[in-house]
Hints:
The chain has about 240 residues and is mainly alpha-helical. The protein has one domain (about 30-230): Penicillin binding protein transpeptidase fold, CATH 1.10.3810.10. The protein has helices spanning about 1-25, 35-45, 65-75, 90-100, 110-120, 125-140, 145-155, 165-175, 180-190, 205-220. Helix 3 crosses helix 10. The longest helix is centred in the first third of the chain and has 25 residues, at about 1-25.
Amino acid sequence: MLRSLLRRLLRYTFYCAAVSVLLVLSMRWVPPVGSGVMIERKLESWVYGQPIDLQRSWRPWAELPDNLKVAVIAAEDQKFAEHWGFDLAAIRAAMTHNESGGHVRGASTISQQVAKNIFLWSGRSWLRKGLETWFTVLIELLWPKQRILEVYLNSAEWGDGVFGAEAAARYHFGVGAPYLSNQQASLLAAVLPNPRAWSARKPGPHVSRRANWIRQQSYQLGGSHYLDQLRPESE
């Protein structure tokens, strides 16, 4: 009986893994219709009786502004072009910091955030972390870096019910994503760690200081020239 249960478990695990591979592979070309975080926000609105209209409009890579691409990399993951999904140095630094107590510091790369945002749910359980690792590996193996950043910019949360760069640009500044100024792009990048509490439209002192730092970091990274590192080798 134990061997039978084990075989069934292994078979079920294999099927789930195969489905996840096919799902991630398909999204290399097909835009995700939504995300796990969007589903989570909708469920929360039903539970608490607070209706929410989800805003999201997909923008392909060529229509996303370079200043926002670089600002998000400068803010969230400056080694994005170099790593294979995990920034080990940042993880070690975060672990050392968290062991000392106080505010918990994260070390998630953009790839890890895409895995969490699209396929998973919020939380810090070992199960979710394990699944995040699995999907991060698949994303890095099956998608080029440009695609990872493209999906991230179209799925990141930028306010209650506001998802993706296009919806964020219109919600906060009343313009389409391609028309964001450098300052506006840096403000959007600045609020990513806490988009439901911080505002890019009415930034407080902390967000303003962070946006200034992001603009400096974007310049030091090389501005739009940094994005040349993300081009697929075939181009």
